[in-house]
Amino acid sequence: MPLLINRADFADPQLQTFLQAHLDDLAPTAPAESRHALDLAALQRPGVRLWTVQDDNHIVGTAALAALEPRHEELKSMRTDPARRGQGIARTLLEHLLQDAKDRGIERISLETGSMAFFAPARALYLRAGFTPCAPFGKYRDDPNSTYLTRQI
User: CB–CB of 65/101 below 8 Å?
Assistant: First the structure.
């Protein structure tokens, strides 16, 4: 069965469990003030678009785009089920989000991710996808626990 990418169904109990696991995974990686993942409520705010990747009716990935300013959005809450990492799920989802943004006239996508070893695979994915280092954007400030990346689309 092929992977299915759809806008998130916030009524799906799997989604809350998957997103909480994401927050739990991040908790030991940095102090609270350096963790910027969105919780379920924040992902439902206007200006945020959340997608899920499902395989055989199981959520195996999530990612969101959040409005920053006209034609500039932030990539948020990118996660692949740990048991499914390395299978191209994140790359497929990232390509989907970039195409969605492009189709809507978005010109730039930026993101914040951790600077620690835990986040090295994520940073490598983003760099391979054409993201480049940038200064903190939006409400972010210099933080040794964070890496900031951006990409024109």
Answer: yes
